[in-house]
Amino acid sequence: MSGAGGQGGSSVPDEEWERFLRESVDGAADAPVEPSARAREVRARLGKGGGRPEGWRTYTPATRGRRTGWYVTGLVAAVALVLVALFPQQVVGWFGDDGEPAGTPMAAESERPTAAPGAERAPRPTLDEPFRGSPAARWADGADGITVPPAKATGWMDAAQVERALRRSKEFMVAAGLDSGVLRGERPERAIALLSPHQRDVREYLRAALSSATPTEETDPLLLFSRFRPDQAELVGDVVKTRGRLTYREGERGAVEVTADVTFVYPVTPAAGEDGADAEVIRTIVRREVVMSWDDPSKVVTEPDTMSLVSYSVDMTNGGCSGPTGYFVPPFGRAGEQLADASQLDPYDRSEPVGTATGADGCVTATRS
């Protein structure tokens, strides 16, 4: 039994059936399409906030990417070889002694280095660039160049007390070597305030060093303090480069003994000298080692927040080699002269102990400035 209205017993009218067959072949613009399994998965993931999945047939041509990188690297290497061949000194100057770009700040010093810094280009320092051509160009400014180690309980002090002793020790080095007034020859009051008033030999040294117009080798204030005569030399700018560190251990009678080993680089020019590119700039370089004892007040007579000096020594270049005057005397007009019988010292070499190089009258000649 056949039904009415359609082919093969279908209930669909003939004209509707024919339209369906045509659209099945040609496709209808607005005909709904059931999403495939992949499309349903994508829609579900997007609806849940997931990222767009990678297409089934997409890929990255890894070979092409590597080859492009190789061509670029090869081109750069070729250009670098040409530059090295044509301008070797200039190219070497682009990098510091450890392979870093020349302007990259050095990491803080945490232990004694094993060798001196590598060779640098040696252009003349200027008023605008007083550290040009010096390893100190990459050193930290002022107090930032003095590394303080982590504190832990030592001797009679707990960790917090050790931390305070380290902080005070650094303050002494800053007050003695970086204070702008002291550098101009003023009395180092802040540094003196950190010294125990009960240490008789140090009191006598300070009295003689800071009051006598003719200090001796033993009473020279430069053994502890950095000073220039303001009518002879003035600092270039307001930056002194430093590099060094503090270390500590348990000393006598349970004291905390702190050792400071710091190099200071002072760029100076003649007082009332020339301005501009013709101005002479000399770097006076001073390395100090000061050993400080923070004593147990139950065993040693002392005052709060003061310490005793155990020892102090100094290496100095470009600061004068005549008799002690109490001030650094930069060799303006004579920089680079080799003194007869004078030992040579690389003032940037911190791998050797202080006082290694000695010459006639204690004078040494810097191998570089």
How are the SSEs ordered, and which strands pair?
Elements: H1 14-26, H2 37-47, H3 62-86, H4 88-92, E1 140-141, E2 146-147, H5 159-177, H6 180-183, H7 189-192, H8 200-211, E3 233-235, E4 241-250, E5 256-270, E6 282-294, E7 308-317, E8 343-345, E9 364-366
Parallel strand pairs: 2-4, 8-9
Antiparallel strand pairs: 1-4, 3-5, 4-5, 5-6, 6-7
What would your notes on this structure say?
By secondary structure, this protein is of the alpha+beta class. The protein has two domains: 63-92; 135-366, no CATH class. It has helices at 14-26, 37-47, 62-86, 88-92, 159-177, 180-183, 189-192, 200-211, and strands at 140-141, 146-147, 233-235, 241-250, 256-270, 282-294, 308-317, 343-345, 364-366. The longest helix has 25 residues, at 62-86. The strands form two sheets. Strands 1, 2, 3, 4, 5, 6 and 7 form a seven-stranded mixed β-sheet that branches. The chain has a two-stranded parallel sheet with strand order 8-9. β4 (241-250) and β5 form a beta hairpin. Helices cover 25% and strands 17% of the residues.
